[in-house]
Amino acid sequence: MGMPKKIISTRPLSDEEMLLRKKFYESIAAQSDLLDKLAERLLTLELAIPGLYATALKLASGENATVTVNAAFYITFACWTLALGLTLMALTPTKWVVDPAILKQDPKKFSEALGVEDFFTRSAIYKRGLIFASSFLFFAGIFSAAFTIG
Q: Cα-Cα-Cα-Cα dihedral of 15, 16, 19, 20, to 10°?
């Protein structure tokens, strides 16, 4: 004789449970869009700050404004250029191999194709990494810009 069978009772999801489940999946799908909006704002800053830097230097020092061309100068513009490149990469669409018949793929099979939920999660993680690195480089550039004024 085996173990007695246990009856598992089920019931349909309530309207509240259905709404929560729907909102959960909407939030997963919306992560990439939110990161795109963040990257767009970061791009605006990355394009504006070097111009503001030059304008502030000119206003503070007048016609004889000079910038010391030293390591800090090169670091500043290298950081700003790399940050701009990473932000543009975050905004550029990336091709992912997705199997629409699978909601969540076994992580060992990611090389074959992602599931639908995996696609949204992986693309958000990819963009988040680029935006984080871009932000770090951008603010490193701002910090090093303080050492270029001579």
A: -150
